[in-house]
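ping. complex inputs:
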Amino acid sequence: MTDPAAPDSERLVLMRMGAAAAAVAACVALAVLAFDGTGVAAGFVALLSLGGVMMGYGVGRKVGPMPSLIRMRMFRVADELAQYRAFTRLLRDQGERITASTSEAATAIVMGLREMDANIARMQAIVERDAAGGTNELQSLVDAVGAPVVGLLGQIQFQDVTQQQIAFLSRLSLIVDQHMIDLARQMGDRRSMDRVGNFKEMFDTALENCVMTSQRQDHHTAAGLDLQEARGPKIELF
Amino acid sequence: MASTIFIVDDSATILMSMEAILNKAGFTVAKAVSGEDAVTKLQGGLKPALIITDIHMPGMNGIDLIRKVRTMSGFQFVPILVVSTESQQAKRDEARAAKATGWLVKPVQPDDLLKVVKQILPNG
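pong. complex structure:
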């Protein structure tokens, strides 16, 4: 999408200057034609003017307010900026995986703790019923086993807190993402969003250090690759 | 008969752990996974003695839920506790304005939770 508030590109400005110069040249040629009446002289003047305009345009592109070298560097920066979006996406994907895996584990722990608690309550009832008298030691042992359960149930809330923190980081990265898109557009290269250049090589280097299939999967997704790695068996004897 | 406490949270971990803590303290627990789910259950006849809700939930958030509950017949004076990771004063003020009863910041220690619940429901 084109930003309506964006200034005209340098190329457009040069073309306008060229058109204005061509108009002036045409006026001069008409004046020559009117005073002298010679068509050949008028044509010669117009040709010279046109040549001058083309030379001016070419020189302007090379050494004008934004020479080609600077323009190319800006495009390059726009490319790099666009590619950092893959990095932020990787962070978001990893965050989602952390949230999912901790949620699953925390739920299993809570279920286990609840089961333990229920069994301890049954044990307490049995001790009170069947071993009445002289069972203080057993009773206090059962109480001691059950005591930490409630505290642990409270501690498990860490998972929800962690999930909120990761969600916040994810929202931040989306803001950074959008900002990078805006900056890349400001740099003036419309194609930068579609290109993946040397950042991919750096990304591949990071991929080398991934130890989990899920991490490599996130890398592939962030790099825009629809690649599913084959997962080997969980247990393998060689 | 034990009082019913209605917990509203989108986190399965929180729902399960709070349910276990409150059950152990002798309360009956009802659960909802979103604001919309909570409203449906309340409209369906659930009459809790206390509502405990999270703030950040997809769809209807906790503050909107409190506002909605306060407009429902029979729920104007039911105590509503907010339990959230959010600790911003502005949000607390928003909850107070919506007529919440109290605010607890996660993670809440079971002892603290039970102390507040017993304060609100002395005969619970």
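Chain A touches chain B through 21 residues (CB under 8 Å).
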